[in-house]
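Hi everyone,

Forwarding the result from last night's run.
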Amino acid sequence: MGKGGNQDEGATELEAPMPTFRWEEIQKHNLRTDKWLVIDRKVYNITKWSSRHPGGQRVIGHYAGEDATDAFLAFHRNLDFVRKFMKPLLIGELAPEEPSQDRGKNSQITEDFRALRKTAEDMNLFKSNQLFFLLHLAHIIAMESIAWFTLFYFGNGWIPTIITAFVLATSQAQAGWLQHDYGHLSVYKKSMWNHIVHKFVIGHLKGASANWWNHRHFQHHAKPNIFHKDPDVNMLHVFVLGEWQPIEYGKKKLKYLPYNHQHEYFFLIGPPLLIPLYFQYQIIMTMIVRKYWVDLAWAISYYTRFFITYIPFYGVLGSILFLNFIRFLESHWFVWVTQMNHIVMEIDREPYRDWFSSQVRAASAGCRGAPRSPGPCPQERGCPIGPALSCPSLGLPVSFHWEGQGRAGESGWELLEGPVGNRGRAVRPREGWALQKGEGSLCASASSHSPPFSPTAGSHLQCGAVLLQ
């Protein structure tokens, strides 16, 4: 997690029994000046050390006073290496009678999800296809070349200019998805190579900052759609989101804009201005203020290449306008692909849910080809929980159940005959059973239980996928 910790901040493991703590005590240490967290039932004091956390002090600070085991597993590739730096921060462990989960979180979901993740790892589903990412990069460079050749061959008339702008906007959008996967360290085994290629793609191909993106996006995945923790739901008083924020604004009589018309002015502000105005300004200011000189050098290389390429066709002012028109087109693409999948999900204050449920409620969607969204298909590739690992379309051995009162011991789903590839068997609802949408949220987990949990006819679906053995 970092380059060591202060000896006075935590105690190394000694032969004598470690101090034990109850959750009531741990939860008190959730302040900016006093941070404890729990990983694998071990208690760590990260108060002073968090400022040196390579992922940033905010993302780790969001878990102060909580169990951070699943977040720790999701964000770090080489766990054995990271644990070496955690020993000086260790101050004790949970008392034996204390549950592993804090604040009444559903331990069964957590256990099931970890079992599902282990199954996915055993099936090598986290192993990336190097050729795919190489071809992805190649087709981005190819589009950049096609854009230049279009102007070189056909001239800078309106039609070639518009075609070139759409080609470049497409390449920019694709570079955005590609840098996302490298930024999540999900391509190469070694983090170093992921970081290097990430800086090249987001810096030289897009003119943005890897550190800026990491700072925002890691917080988003750590606490998705949580006010004051997820930067992606900070609308700068332009929009109000969720159910809590409009009420809070009403109580405080905050009315920077006519929020009752935000569904109308969203189309004038959100899609067209997010990237060319807000992101572009914030990225440049962040690199300068925070002294991200390496990122700034990569960004300068992008702008240098762009203007050298297009000033001969449009001049200085024309090239600046052309660049912002490309950003304008890309912004529409980006907003509709990302924000439309997130801001319609649950947005609230910190609910202290388990890792899996928090991801499903905030950044997921239904599985294509599966009845009534039976399980999470996160629409962000490289998402820490593992993209779409519970979808029947991937052939994972999953089934779904109803929870509550009903015909005990009987699953609402049944296996179809025959394997799906070599990964498992497909499922379908039993006759007379139907998925219903109720107050509960749809989620999926893995379990060693066989048969699945008890179903409930006419109840809402809650925690659905269980691993079949």
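The longest helix spans residues 293-342.

Cheers,
N.
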